[in-house]
């Protein structure tokens, strides 16, 4: 144990990644406040160690032990902090459960995050991945966040333009932002809320239930029901949710694919490109319900890779590579994994 910081050694990480993969951290620190990061920065020996920032472990694939100081973000706190331009500002610490925070906003009578209900992980990780589901992305409701910069030992606020959000992307996934550590995130939730029912399946489900003017809570409950029907609970079957991004291709590429595969599932994008359904591509290659070793493809959703019990990170990685190869060979489309491989 470090005399100032409660750093633990040879720490097991199996409980802290939703795939449930066995791996150990050479050093581990549960970060409860920014002051710990500042003390870490002030200690030259500790500051020089390689670091790996861990949130809820829902977007990582641990393929080996982590030879670094794992900073496990557990900063808590949720609060309504103000109002700006007709929106209520709500802030949460980086270590808060994402789904728990969505529930908190609903309890305050605030809509805006309900389409992102039941997404695993933490608040701090949400903007890094620019998480999205059912017609909504983090960037659509984002206000600002606070980061700690290990290079300078200082904190700073970043707004939307600073974060350079893209499809499952942000500055934090690129060299110029990869070292920054998210401390808290603030969202701007509209006072004049309107349901976001652009996603057809969500609209159909509410319509079938006879809900013509849904409340935020009703939208959230419907999203939760759909997700539970489609996706495995990580507490029961280890997984990291959707394993691959939906590939984006040009309109010409999409038309060429449609000529050979008329049933191709695709969605037109505002910039004229086409987003293909990765799950459909994988399913067409016959991977649903199959696997390598104890790593498998979830029988109900080809986009989800699972740990069927005792899988290793190497098995999951081998399965992902095999799927990528098959999709590339059959469709000429390169699938990109969502989780970070460690």
Automatic annotation (TrEMBL):
Listed Pfam families: FAD_binding_4, MurB_C
Reactions it catalyzes: UDP-N-acetyl-alpha-D-muramate + NADP(+) = UDP-N-acetyl-3-O-(1-carboxyvinyl)-alpha-D-glucosamine + NADPH + H(+)
Subcellular location: Cytoplasm
Listed InterPro entries: FAD-bd_PCMH, FAD-bd_PCMH-like_sf, FAD-bd_PCMH_sub1, FAD-bd_PCMH_sub2, MurB, MurB_C, MurB_C_sf, Oxid_FAD_bind_N
Cofactor(s) named in the record: FAD
Entry EC number(s): 1.3.1.98
Name used for this protein in its record: UDP-N-acetylenolpyruvoylglucosamine reductase
Taxonomic placement: Bacteria, Pseudomonadati, Pseudomonadota, Betaproteobacteria, Burkholderiales
